[in-house]
Amino acid sequence: AYRDKVLEGAQTFLERLLADQIDILFRSEGRLPSKLVEIDDPPHWLFVQGNQEVLLSDAVAVVGTRNATDAG
Q1: Is the dihedral of CA 28, 33, 37, 39 positive or negative?
Q2: Residue 68: pLDDT above 90?
Q3: pTM for the full predicted model
Q4: What is the pLDDT, as a whole number, of residue 24?
C-alpha cells in the first residue's frame, strides 16, 4: 500500500513537471553540463525549464541549495 502511494505521488509530480515544461537532467544519463559534472559532489539531477542550450555556454549560474534552512 505504501509503495503504491509513493508511486502515485511520483506520477503526480512528474505530470506537474511535464505540464510546466520542466525537464530533469540526470547525471547517470550524462545529461548534466560538463562543467557542472567537474565540481566536487555534483548533483544527481538538475531541473531545467527553458532553453537548455544555454547550459552549454561558458557562463551559467545555477541557483539553489541541497540543504535548505529556515535562515536561508
Answers
A1: negative
A2: no
A3: 0.68
A4: 93
